[in-house]
Amino acid sequence: MKQMKLICHQKSFSDDSLIIGAKDFPGLQIGDIVEIYLPDDTFSRLLLQVTILKEDFQKDAISVEQSLANAFQLRVYADVIVNKVDPRDVALDSVELVFKDHYLARSDMWRWKQAMINTCVYTKKLIKIHSSMSPCQPFEGGKCTAVSGKPLMWLQVYEMWAHGEQVASGVITADTKIVYRSASSMVYLFIQMSSEMWDFDTNGDLYFEKAVNGFLCDLIAKWKDMKCNHDINIVLFSRVFYEAKSKEQFPEHMAHCVQVDYKGRFYEDFYRVAVQNERIDDWTQTLRLLKTYFNEYPKQILEHHHRPNVLFFF
């Protein structure tokens, strides 16, 4: 444990998140993990992997990349505690990594995890790594070796957990569970158009309005905050029950569509694709479309089989 003066550097100055003097830590080696925190310890401790040791660096000082220092509320020229830690003591139980606009195969998941073992990660860290079009090169000092001309993917650390608690930084080990989340998936939203959708709640709002204006709007807003580019499909569906005692009571063209549930009731399922393969930036137009479908839905469903001289049982 040693108290050092904190200075910061920009990414344009160095790609290394941590620059430390070799003379200040004689026993420190490339690949070691150090924790950095303020003496009063009011915020999460920052864990970084040593990727460079400078012989001519300023004495009793360390340099942390500016945006990283701001994220962990480390003030420039403040006194900080720097301590070498055992990776096993700061091992992560699970890590969530977010990516988008790429296809991710299971082989990629396995190779990426192997490449990230014994490396340090922190919240919102960007990890540059090879896609499935090229072999994943081993990490050198915590950084993935680039291959000229080969396409790369970016993974961003979203959440980390250790000992049942969410943490801001940690070390990935062979036992760490890595969860990959795509920010550009094909999402299917099924809205059940049951009869309750046309009922009012205690505040006078239709349950359909609560589903659309509440849940869906909040969901889209959250996706925007997380910079997601999901392709959205919205499907309206419902089940119509018929008051009949046998299939012989149904018209011939309708009988093959009718099913029987476990209670012996005759029913038919209906689906209406409202939105297909769209990336919704402006929710206003989609909201107007859903409201139009909502107003037309009962008539379209109940008169779906309506034809001259056909008798229906609802």
TrEMBL record:
One GO location term (cellular component)? lysosomal membrane
User: Which Gene Ontology terms describe the biological processes this protein takes part in?
Assistant: cellular response to amino acid starvation; negative regulation of TORC1 signaling; positive regulation of autophagy
User: Where does the signal peptide begin and end?
Assistant: none
| Molecular function GO terms recorded | GTPase activator activity
Judging by the UniProt lineage, the source's domain of life is: Eukaryota
User: Where do the Vacuolar membrane-associated protein Iml1 N-terminal domain residues begin and end?
Assistant: 95-132, 155-307
Q: Where is the IML1 N-terminal double psi beta-barrel domain?
A: 1-84
Question: Which one Pfam family would you cite for this protein?
Answer: IML1
Q: What is this protein called?
A: DEP domain-containing protein 5
Q: What is the lineage of its organism?
A: Eukaryota, Metazoa, Ecdysozoa, Arthropoda, Chelicerata
Extract the InterPro entries matched here. Answer: IML1, IML1_double_psi_beta_barrel, IML1_N
* Native source species: Rhipicephalus microplus (Cattle tick)
